[in-house]
Amino acid sequence: MTSESVPMTPLTTTLWRPTGPEELALVEAADWRAWPPRLPEQPIFYPVLNEDYAIRIARDWNVPASGVGYVTRFEVDTAFLARYPVQQAGGRTILELWVPAEELAEFNRHIVGRIELVHEFRPQP
């Protein structure tokens, strides 16, 4: 009888990211595995901790700003995320992580699996 070593899969945390068409195109170009570097006027990358909040941002902010809003979902190694305290950006359920732009490449290395597109919003006629 042999003992096989089974690789440990890290515990993950589900995060959401509301986004517009330009950022989503860059995610797609990265094979749905990484977020693009921040622009100079974007000092932080902020994924959110619940789907409802992500939907509200995509629908209420991204649609008016760029004609379409998307919500993505992805998994990140939970142990790695411990370095980013949860930020309450408003009400009780308005929770974000603030990842400094200079740490985004390392953050991307801790994404487990692929980034998924889960919602799309367009202007209502």
In short:
By secondary structure, the chain is α+β, with helices and mostly antiparallel strands.
Walk me through this protein's architecture.
By secondary structure, this protein is α+β, with helices and mostly antiparallel strands. The chain has one domain: ADP-ribosylation fold, CATH 3.20.170. The protein has helices at 21-29, 51-66, 78-81, 104-109; strands at 12-19, 44-45, 69-77, 86-88, 95-97, 99-100, 111-121. The chain has a three-stranded antiparallel sheet. Strands 2-6 form a two-stranded antiparallel ribbon. A two-stranded antiparallel sheet has the order 4-5. The chain is globular and about 50 Å long. It starts with 11 loop residues before the first strand and ends with a strand. The mean pLDDT is 92.
Helical percent range?
Answer: 25-40%
Tell me the β content.
25-35%
Distance between the termini: 67 Å
Task: Report mean pLDDT, rounded to a whole number.
Answer: 92
Number of strands: 7
Domain count: 1
What class would the helix/strand composition place it in? alpha+beta
Spans of at least 5 consecutive residues whose pLDDT stays below 50 are none
So how many helices?
4
CATH class membership: Alpha Beta
Secondary-structure arrangement, i.e. CATH architecture: Alpha-Beta Barrel
The gyration radius over C-alpha positions equals 16 Å
Strand arrangement, major sheet = 1-3-7
Largest sheet: 3 strands, antiparallel
